[in-house]
Amino acid sequence: MFSRPILERAWALGLVGLVAAGPCDIYSSGGTPCIAAHSTTRALYNAFSGSLYQVKRGSDNTTRNIAPVSAGGVANAASQDSFCAGTTCLITIIYDQSGRGNHLAQAPPGGFQGPEANGYDNLASATGAPVTLNGQKAYGVFVSPGTGYRNNAPSGTAKGDAAEGMYTVLDGTHFNGGCCFDYGNAETNNKDTGNGHMEAIYFGDNTIWGSGAGSGPWIMADLENGLFSGQNTKNNAGDPSISYRFVTAAIKGQPNQWAIRGANAASGTLSTYYNGARPSASGYNPMSKEGAIILGIGGDNSVSGQGTFYEGVMTSGFPSDATENAVQANIVAAKYATTSLTSGPAFTVGSSVSFRATTAGYDTRFLAHSGAAVNTQVVSSSSATTLKQQASWTVRSGLGNSACFSFESRDTPGSYIRHNNFVLQVDSNDGSKQFREDATFCPQAGLNGQGNSIRAWNYPTCYFRHYANVGYAARNGGVHVFDNAASFNDDASWVVSAGFA
Ligand code: AHR
Ligand code: AHR
Ligand code: AHR
Fold first, then answer.
1. The pLDDT value given to residue 5
2. What are the residue boundaries of the Alpha-L-arabinofuranosidase B catalytic domain, all occurrences included (predicted)?
């Protein structure tokens, strides 16, 4: 199973007899134990069989903990699927496997407010990031802008200039330029308290502070008031754009030194993109790390970043390259792979479809548009051609992700259904990444048991929903009037048939 060089490295690390070890067993053997270990996809210790994460369902707001199928194994996705059947589910807690209780929960407001009514960040959908590990289904944490997790009082994290390491496995195709999709060490008060108060992994193509080679995305270090690709350079050409579907990103720091490393999480070995001195700008040497843990946000709760998190750990001490290399071998052996993003009745690219509402009293209405506005209208075989065309959509391969779909207006070629501030509208494709992502939807089996529910790819908590006969990308029980939980499943389920035109 393991190649000879890996066995030799394991031998050198004193790991023989433990070659089936999880990432945190490897860090322990290397003398730099995990002080936090987070994953919704698998156990990160060979012996771990406790809860990996908690989900909460929309139907009754009850929760269920999801554990690995066996000690050291992959998360029990079937347990989540049965609990979440016929409703929506959010990830409420990502448990710490280290035994220190350093769990991640919904992030509170700070320098920036989150989108919830109380200023907290959103929780992630439990179903936005399905994958397989060694062929077994599991779910990652799909972070849309506005989503974030935090722990402001963990035990054992690095403070001040103390040494630490961290890695995470991410989706290298899900990123943006917003601030800041991070995982790692941050402020304990959710505010920007100054240079050197953070040491976290950043992933995305933000260029406000630093950048690497090409157009991104890059692995950088968020050290507060700066995303660093190298020592001081705004552009470290040694920090490559890295967009494998699965990316391993690692950052580590100790007095006078820090490093960035990265790899394809599905094959190969880690490369070092920077290893050297601390930035010379004031505040970064020595560091003033505060020791909170963030996921999906900046230190001051900046909530504009997006990305997908599968697993990550933080260590006590500066891990050796050899230890990290052995962890990378373990990640590769976990065999992360993609799986279908859709379920329910199938869609055929190129076909014309209609979407019929299923809410009692509204089920003669179809998703249609009047100019840019998306609404529902009563349509039948005897309707005028104009109306028939307004209620017909051509299925296209997803503009933002070809595993999902886009819906082109039948009467306005080149224009597609997209969401904008969570309102559905028909807009012409401006070619931007934002447009393509806002116009990409992943159909799943209908939440009320009929037809399909149409999930927004970039906001998997949001579904096509009619409310007062207007079309929205609505979140079950969210802050908008149109998010109202009453009749959500019915309003968000559509029978998909051949288009009228
Ligand atoms: O360092 C980049 C960002 O700057 C931090 O994440 C945030 O706290 C500040 O806005
Ligand atoms: O619809 C939600 C977001 O609102 C879209 O992703 C963005 O384009 C707009 O700001
Ligand atoms: O869109 C019609 C109705 O408007 C929805 O069923 C209901 O949720 C809202 O009041």
1. 46
2. 23-337
- The alpha carbon of 470 and the centre of ligand 3 are apart by a number of angstroms equal to 9
Ligand 3 centroid vs 421 CA: distance in angstroms?
Answer: 19
In the chain, which stretches have pLDDT less than 70? 1-20
Q: Is the previous residue joined to 462 through a cis bond, with omega within 30 degrees of 0? A: no
Residue nearest to atom 9 of ligand 1 (CA): 225
What is the reported pLDDT for 234? Answer: 86
Sign of CA dihedral 482, 488, 491, 496: positive
Of the bound ligands, which one is closest to the alpha carbon of residue 474? 2
The rounded distance, in Å, linking the Cα atoms of 313 and 252 is 11
Q: Exactly one of 300, 311, 438, 490 is catalytic; which is it?
A: 300
- 300 catalytic per annotation: yes
Cα(214)–Cα(237) distance, rounded to whole angstroms? 8
- Are 405 and 436 in contact by the 8 Å Cβ rule? The answer is no
User: Would you say the CB of residue 421 lies under 6 angstroms from ligand 2?
Assistant: yes
Q: What is the pTM of this model?
A: 0.96
Q: Are 67 and 80 in contact (CB under 8 A)?
A: no
Query: Closest Cα to residue 162, out of 252, 259, 27, 275?
Result: 252
163-196 tens-digit pLDDT = 999 999 999 999 999 999 999 999 999 999 999 9
